[in-house]
Amino acid sequence: MHHLVPRYQIPDGRCFRHNRKHTSVRYPDRVKTPLEIEIKLVAASPQKTRSLLRTHGFSVIKPRIFESNIVLDNPQGSLRERGLLLRVRRAGKLFTCTYKGFEMPSPYKRREEREFTVSDFDECLAVFAALGYHESFRYEKYRTEFARPKEPGHVTLDETPIGVFMELEGPSRWIGPTARSLGYPQKVWITASYAALYFEWCEARGVEPGSMTFRKS
Questions:
Q1: Per-residue confidence (pLDDT) for residue 9, from 0 to 100
Q2: Three-state helix/strand/coil letters over the chain
Q3: Would you say residue 25 has pLDDT above 70?
């Protein structure tokens, strides 16, 4: 794995690297173009993050839910090599299929995003499998969504197997000031994907990477 990007440290001493070069249909009332603009922020804990967001006027708009995300690719890994993403997500009874395009140079993670809901999760995977696209990576998280009234962006609190993060998604004119007001200067903004963070996490611990899933008790 290449080490061409800077590292940052989260509160418990673990390190990640992230690439500063680096419509959502899910939120039609807040993000009205087919362009994903977001950043990730390391959070200390779910409890402290909820308290921080409440202090700054945010409230829950979608309660905590478990998500299972399956990234699809062909055996050659062509989508990954081209910087594209094809994903099917299960979040409760909601199933969504997402395409993400090339990342655009920006202080934010910025790329085309197309997404639609599907009625049958397994049949959706079967269709892609018939076309040659199979599971290449799986990641899980518990997600809670927050927003403030009459603002164009939202914050998600993501509890993952490798730590707790916030994602700020919306117009760049909203993301930057909001992140700074929460105590996060631009130097700690993260534009890497959860897959990239997971592989860095495994490398730092000498762990063989697999899927970013919670351990079964």
A1: 44
A2: CCCCCCEEECCCCCEEECCCCCCCCCCCCCCCCCEEEEEEEEECCHHHHHHHHHHCCCEEEEEEEEEEEEEEECCCCHHHHCCCEEEEEEECCEEEEEEEEEECCCCCEEEEEEEEEECCHHHHHHHHHHCCCEEEEEEEEEEEEEECCCCCCEEEEEEECCEEEEEEECCHHHHHHHHHHCCCCHHHCECCCHHHHHHHHHHHHCCCCCCECCCCC
A3: no
Q: How confident is the model at residue 100, as a pLDDT? A: 96
Q: Please give the distance of CA 165 from its chain centroid, rounded to a whole number.
A: 9
pLDDT-derived band of residue 215, with 50, 70 and 90 as boundaries?
Answer: confident
The answer to whether position 1 is within a domain reads no
Amino acid making up residue 73: D
Residue 214 is assigned to a structural domain of this protein: no
In a domain, 43, yes or no: yes
The answer to the question of residue 110 being in a domain is yes
Report the chain's mean pLDDT, rounded to a whole number: 88
Note down the domain range covering 12. 7-205
How many structural domains are present in the chain? 1
Rounded Cα distance between 196 and 116, Å, is: 24
pTM for the structure as a whole: 0.84
The whole-number average pLDDT for the span 109-133 is 97
Q: What does the pLDDT look like over 144-173, one tens digit per residue?
A: 999 999 999 999 999 999 999 999 999 999
Q: What is the CATH number of the domain that holds 75?
A: 2.40.320.10
